[in-house]
Amino acid sequence: MKYSVFGEHRVIKPKGVLPQPAWKIDNTMKIYPNELLIQVETLNIDSASFTQIRSQANDDVEKIKEIMKGIVAERGKHHNPKTGSGGMLIGTVKEIGDEYPHKELQIGDRIATLVSLSLTPLMIDEIIDVKIENDQVDIKGEAILFASGIFAKLPEDMPKKLALSVLDVAGAPAQTARLVKSGQTVAVIGASGKSGLLCLHEAKKRVGVSGKVIALCYDKNGLEEIKRMNLADEVIHCDATDALTTHKKMVDATNGILADLTINCVNIPNTEMATILSTKDQGTIYFFSMATSFTAAALGAEGVGKDVNMIIGNGYCKDHAKIAIEVLRENSLLRDLYNERYA
Fold first, then answer.
1. Cβ distance 35 to 146 under 8 Å?
2. In this structure, are strands 11-13 and 24-25 parallel, antiparallel, or unpaired?
3. Angstrom distance (rounded) from CA 304 to CA 299
4. CB 176 within 8 A of CB 149
5. 241-259 average pLDDT score
6. What integer pLDDT is reported at residue 1 of this predicted model?
């Protein structure tokens, strides 16, 4: 059988599509010559997906396990059919195909995959532990990485689960570093979460003394943590599903000017309009959240006459893993918080 760098040889249905949009893929753990076999230790389920699964299971751990196993059994990958998202994993290289292109890897190397579980062939033999508080699930199982799949070797100067939690959202701080300019007003919605905190750090570093970083979040404990770590110039308590109230608070915080750049890291639906209304005309919005409805965003902006540039939260950009890990090396307070939450 012919095999491809992108993994479409594993697509079962519908034929003719790539593994990510496919409904079902082949998760047989016998590798093709251009693939990598990984002994999986931990799955980091993306926040939107895990929030949905927790809600469906009413936080019952055994029910969460049942739902996750059911997704993988049905689809051959952890591709949540309700959110369309996945997550990523850490594990140990078990077998390397003769034609696998990344020759720097050796059997026994511990890596984090930087492509979504929504396209990664996965086999779960056993779910050992579910950590509800940090979206991480320890398993016994195996996974396949395609030749095109990106990865990072786990850093030696931090615990594996700390590195996993950061690498899972590496695209957010890296894209923030790319987008933020000196002197801008930057708003981060969902600022107290895993990706939001990293974005605050990068934004604060880059706006300079003439810029302003505004943190918006619902969790009051998170607000206090942001203040303690001095990650924002202004901290606002808000419910981002309430677009009009959020807009009013942003008007007050910016004297009506609004944000040059708004970054949405919220893990629940219906925050598109609050994000749009927080942003000035010809400003930029970065929707990192996989809970975003891009239909709602596009039609919503049109409906309120907002001329804004909207960027889809591509989880990958050049050097994103390096940038994300470096945030924790630069900011000891943030690293301590991540250690407490995720490691």
1. yes
2. antiparallel
3. 9
4. no
5. 98
6. 57
Contact 152, 321 (CB under 8 A): yes
Pairwise CA distance, residues 27 & 24, whole Å: 9
User: Which domains are present in the chain?
Assistant: 8-154 (no CATH), 171-342 (3.40.50.720)
* 22 CB-side CA count, 13 A: 28
Give residue for tokens 């600022």.
Answer: 191
Give the separation between CA 342 and CA 133, rounded to whole angstroms. Answer: 8
Model confidence pTM above 0.85: no
- Label each residue of the chain as H, E or C: CCCCCCCHHHEEECCCCCCCCCCEECCCCCCCCCCEEEEEEEEEECHHHHHHHHHHHCCCHHHHHHHHHHHHHHHCCCCCCCCCCCEEEEEEEEEECCCCCCCCCCCCCEEEECCCCCCCCEEEEEEEEEECCCCEEEEEEEEEECCCCCEEECCCCCCHHHHHHHHCCCHHHHHHHHHCCCCCEEEEECCCCHHHHHHHHHHHHHHCCCCEEEEEECCHHHHHHHHHHCCCCEEEECCCCCHHHHHHHHHHHHCCCCEEEEEECCCCCCCHHHHHHCEEEEEEEEECCCCCCHHHHHHHHHHCCCCCEEEECCCCCCCHHHHHHHHHHHCHHHHHHHHHHHC
Q: What is the mean pLDDT of residues 215-230?
A: 95
51-106 pLDDT, tens digit each: 999 999 999 999 999 999 999 999 999 999 999 999 999 999 999 999 999 999 99
Q: Is 262 in contact with 275 (CB distance < 8 Å)?
A: yes
177-201, pLDDT tens digit by residue?
999 999 999 999 999 999 999 999 9
Question: Do 282 and 257 form a contact (C-beta atoms < 8 A)?
Answer: no
- Cα–Cα nearest to 143, from 47, 25, 28: 28
Parallel, antiparallel or unpaired: strands 279-287 and 259-264: parallel
Contacts of 251 (CB under 8 A, 6+ apart): 258
Closest CA to 167 of 291, 331, 316, 314: 316
Q: Nearest 5°: phi and psi at 215? A: -100, 125
